[in-house]
Amino acid sequence: MIKIITIADIHCGKNSLTKRGDTALSLLDEFNLFVDKEKPDLIIDLGDRINDIDKKNDIILQKEIFKKLNENKIKTYHICGNHDVVNLTVKENEEIFNQSLENEVILLDNFKILLWRADAKTYRTDDFFGFKINEMDFIWLNNEVMNSKVPVIIFSHVPISPASLIGNYYFQNNPSFGSYPNSSRLRNSICKASMPVFFLSGHVHWNSFSQEDGITYLTQQSLTESFSNFGKPAKSWGQISLDNKFLWKVYGDEPIEISLDIKKRNSITPLGSFSNLNQDLRAK
Ligand SMILES: [Fe+2]
Q1: Which positions ≥6 away from 164 have C-beta within 8 Å?
Q2: From ligand 1's centre to the CA of 9, what distance in Å?
Q3: Residue 62, number of CB atoms within 10 A of its CB
Q4: What is the CATH number for 50?
Q5: How far is the CA of 204 from the centre of ligand 1 (A)?
Q6: Whole-angstrom Cα distance, residue 86 to residue 254?
Q7: Residue of 59, 145, 106 lying closest to 240 (CA atoms)
Q8: What is the structure's pLDDT at 267?
């Protein structure tokens, strides 16, 4: 069995709106105890490690995260979130975390793990405000999914999930910031994969599960988010176990558990519009 521990939106630093950055480092101590007990194959940090301030302070905060996560013995793969690249470049993050932060494939037993490190920066000009999706990132993801002969598990910071954002403190009134632009184009493309595909992201600060055209989309709650926990941090981290099932379990004050069979996809052509069917079929 493969075990992957996931942590999202640590947001270390001064508190910002409902993000309880002041609790991040002590919660990471608890996280490290969990890691030591579970001994996963790897850890994936889904990004937004800090509450950004300015370049000098952001470097200090990122280094604190690096030091703290190094206290466990398991390799952590990092993905940058939008707050990690407000004042720092991806290259500066690479130097702090001593690893490449480009898109990456990890082959583990009979599974393909994709770290989709698409641009998570929010751009602001006179006529544009939001995320941009780089065509090369789209092509890379699509090729890796479509060419896979084994089940695929994708990790990113920003989701492409079709899940509703109604009720979300940050994104109900800002839905275009809750996923990549044109996410439906990506979903319509990877849904043609022959292998099972599971896609886990951070960013939206709550747990969600949705499926579209046979693909499973998940988002994981932030470690320190408090908007849905009466002002207290959610203390969330997750674990994915892979064998003949895909099991995603989120711990903390907002637990969720999703267990799905991993089986070859059964694609069908949906029935046409009811109004075009003859009377006999309508009766059925
Ligand atoms: Fe975040």
Answers
A1: none
A2: 5
A3: 23
A4: 3.60.21.10
A5: 7
A6: 29
A7: 106
A8: 78
Hey, what are 17's tokens?
Answer: 């709106």
Question: What's the predicted TM-score (pTM) here?
Answer: 0.96
Ligand 1 centre and the CA of 11: distance in Å? 7
Q: Which residues constitute the domain of residue 48?
A: 2-283
Buried b (16+ CB within 10 A) or exposed e, 203-235: bbbbbbeeeeeebbbbbbbbbbbbbbbeeebbb
Cα of 232 vs centre of ligand 1, distance in Å, is 16
Question: Residue written as tokens 């009766």?
Answer: 283
**What's the CA-to-centroid distance between 130 and ligand 1, angstroms?**
15
CA of 102 relative to ligand 1 center, distance in Å: 20
pLDDT digits (tens, 9 = 90+) for 214-272: 999 999 999 999 999 999 999 999 999 999 999 999 999 999 999 999 988 877 889 99
How many domains does the structure of the chain reveal? Answer: 1
And the tokens for 163? 């899940």
Q: How far is the CA of 17 from the centre of ligand 1 (A)?
A: 11
If you measure from the C-alpha of residue 195 to the centroid of ligand 1, how many angstroms do you get, rounded to a whole number?
Answer: 30
CB of 237 closer than 8 Å to CB of 7:
yes
pLDDT band with cut points at 50, 70 and 90 for residue 283: low
The total number of residues shown for the chain amounts to 284
Q: What is the whole-number distance in angstroms between the Cα of residue 267 and the centre of ligand 1? A: 35
Q: Is 218 helix (H, G, I), strand (E, B) or coil?
A: strand
pLDDT of residue 277: 76
